[in-house]
Amino acid sequence: MNLDSSLMVLGIALALGCDAFAVGLAIGTRDPDRRQCFRLWFHFGLFQFLMTMGGWYAGRAVLAYIADYDHWIASGLLAVIALRMLKESLADPDDEAAAAERCDPTRGWSLVALSFATSFDALGVGFGMSMAAASLFWESVVIGFTAAGMTWTGLFLGRRLSIAFGKRVETMGALILLAIAAKLLEI
């Protein structure tokens, strides 16, 4: 890989990592612990890597079937999680039932849904790059590590904003996720 292609891959990795950063920022407002942060940045990086490699392997046949719907799926997944976060952020902090019901977006199906939603673009990038590259393994590694790093940065900044501005930042985080979900519908 020469310098020009290295810069291109880094640019692509940064562009793909923007969704992961935004979701990390939103979830960071919920004051996640170290395990939750690790789960999120690890899975976002892993899914970016796997989806890029999957796009490279999939070829036109599979992509043709999901290309018309992938943005709807990603948007729907983000919207459901964002609406749940918004509901929880507006709940009375003293309400014990609401606190017990509070979902951990870094576990289970929420984590899988967020990981897929933030990495759908990587599937298309992998497919597109497969036409120009004999192998995408190292490029996919760069994309995965970049997404993980951007997620960690978003989590860190979200936590700092939450400490500085309180519960309102969690509401803003949920609204940011809703805006991303709406933006995905324009694709």
Automatic annotation (TrEMBL):
It is found in: Cell membrane. One of its GO terms (molecular function) is manganese ion transmembrane transporter activity. The chain crosses the membrane at residues 6-28, 40-59, 136-157. GO terms for cellular component: plasma membrane. The keyword Nucleotide-binding does not apply. Probably functions as a manganese efflux pump. The keyword Ion transport applies. Keywords: Cell membrane, Ion transport, Manganese, Membrane, Transmembrane, Transmembrane helix, Transport. Belongs to the MntP (TC 9.B.29) family. It holds the Pfam family Mntp. It comes from the Bacteria. It is a multi-pass membrane protein. The gene is mntP. This is Putative manganese efflux pump MntP.
